[in-house]
Amino acid sequence: MRHLKRGRKLGTDASHRKAMLRSLAVALFANERIKTTEARAKEVRSLVDKVITWGKSGDVHSRRLAIAELGDKEIVHRVFDDIAPRYESRDGGYTRIHKLGPRKGDAAPMVILELVE
Prior knowledge:
By secondary structure, the chain is an alpha+beta fold.
């Protein structure tokens, strides 16, 4: 039974899933918009929102948590200095998902995940 088990498996083992979500989050912060599958977008959304919330607090502990989660100091610097100040008046919901339709080949539902302006 899956009682109290959070998150999607995404067809991978735990280390691959963690690395994939980390790279999706880094790509989203770098480009502010990515194209991915719907399940991956819904899963990475919580990670992105958490990092932006850390960026809004801006203290050293939050910065270290973000570096541990993302593994890229330059991206964390960008999140804390450029991206997070945009959302000072917003309490949550920093991302938006636009559905594109099925992917040719395996018919996986594709979406565009972007940061809200």
